[in-house]
């Protein structure tokens, strides 16, 4: 496991991939990519599964607002240049899979330098990304993320499903926190490579109705050494109504941190 993860994260640790301010993200379609980091993310599912499902593509549950915003950002992933092929635009869609590791060979399991066992094959094979583990379309978290490398921004379009209820008819605060962590965490990961959330500070300003679609916009505040500071707003789809505000601190980590070494 340690060796497998080491291989997977090799791209993150390349000296050619420092703080990713100047690094290029995946191009419009997110099919081919340029940075070692984004290449690594996109390679993760295909390394373990022949047919990974990208959950951030439209499905039958997406309502008109979700589709409208998806098309709005998607249309800015590629730009037409007269007489030339389409070129990458300012925004790029981030694909989203429901697992990062499927199986590891038994031989790779899992005695760590610290002597502990990391994850059994059974547990790891059942592991799923929290936000993608309800497979009924539209029931829980429907979302898609786009990043803008020039503006150092990330946008999440989030359609709230009926299984996310907290207060009657409204979205659970933990589900909102989950999506804020997902957008800001993905943004920090794109900027800085592998990170973990160290601090997440949330102000809930107005309840979000179940079934509504909201915009989650995150911006880079600053980077200092291993720290990436990001702030985030959850608003209505026209930006006028503020639902939630947050700030987050992410710390860059090494693989050995994840493995408990
Ligand atoms: C992995 C990639 C996969 C790729 C796949 C594709 C991407 C797919 C994206 C999905 C997006 C989902 C995003 C979910 C992201 C989570 O949910 S992560 C899970 C929740 N977070 C955790 O469990 C983290 C638990 N905490 C820890 O592991 C450790 O405390 C940390 C955060 C790594 C920090 O530990 P450490 O590295 O030992 O750092 P430490 O030396 O204590 O502190 C370093 C500096 O940070 C400061 N600091 C540390 N903690 C704090 C704090 N809480 N507040 C303020 N300052 C702090 C210290 O004061 C210190 O400052 P200086 O003295 O250097 O100025």
From TrEMBL:
It is an enzyme of class 3 (hydrolase). InterPro entries: HotDog_dom_sf, THEM4/THEM5_acyl-CoA_thioest, Thioestr_dom. It catalyses: (5Z,8Z,11Z,14Z)-eicosatetraenoyl-CoA + H2O = (5Z,8Z,11Z,14Z)-eicosatetraenoate + CoA + H(+); octanoyl-CoA + H2O = octanoate + CoA + H(+); decanoyl-CoA + H2O = decanoate + CoA + H(+); (9Z)-octadecenoyl-CoA + H2O = (9Z)-octadecenoate + CoA + H(+). Pfam families: 4HBT (PF03061). One of its GO terms (cellular component) is mitochondrial inner membrane. Gene3D superfamilies: Hotdog Thioesterase. Residues 169-239 form the Thioesterase domain. It comes from the Eukaryota. Belongs to the THEM4/THEM5 thioesterase family. This is Acyl-coenzyme A thioesterase THEM4. It comes from Mastacembelus armatus.
């Amino acid at each position: 496991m340690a060796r497998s993860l080491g291989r997977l994260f090799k791209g993150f640790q390349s000296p050619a991939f420092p703080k990713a301010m100047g690094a290029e993200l995946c191009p419009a379609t997110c099919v081919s990519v340029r940075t070692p980091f984004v290449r690594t993310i996109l390679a993760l599912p295909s390394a373990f599964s022949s047919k990974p499902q990208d959950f951030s593509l439209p499905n039958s549950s997406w309502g008109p607002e979700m589709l409208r915003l998806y098309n709005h950002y998607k249309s800015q992933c590629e730009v037409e240049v007269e007489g030339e092929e389409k070129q990458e635009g300012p925004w790029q869609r981030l694909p989203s899979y429901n697992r990062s590791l499927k199986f590891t060979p038994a031989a790779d399991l899992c005695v760590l330098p610290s002597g502990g066992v990391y994850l059994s094959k059974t547990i790891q094979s059942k592991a799923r990304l929290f936000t993608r583990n309800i497979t009924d379309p539209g029931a829980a978290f429907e979302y898609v993320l786009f990043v803008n490398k020039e503006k150092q921004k990330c946008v999440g379009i989030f359609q709230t499903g009926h299984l996310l209820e907290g207060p009657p008819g409204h979205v659970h605060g933990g589900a909102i926190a989950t999506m804020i962590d997902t957008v800001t965490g993905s943004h920090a990961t794109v900027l800085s490579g592998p990170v973990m959330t160290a601090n997440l500070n949330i102000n809930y300003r107005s309840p979000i109705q179940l079934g509504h679609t909201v915009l989650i916009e995150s911006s880079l505040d600053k980077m200092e050494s291993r720290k990436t500071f990001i702030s985030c707003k959850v608003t209505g789809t026209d930006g006028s109504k503020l639902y939630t505000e947050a700030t987050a601190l992410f710390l860059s980590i090494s693989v050995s941190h994840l493995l408990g070494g």
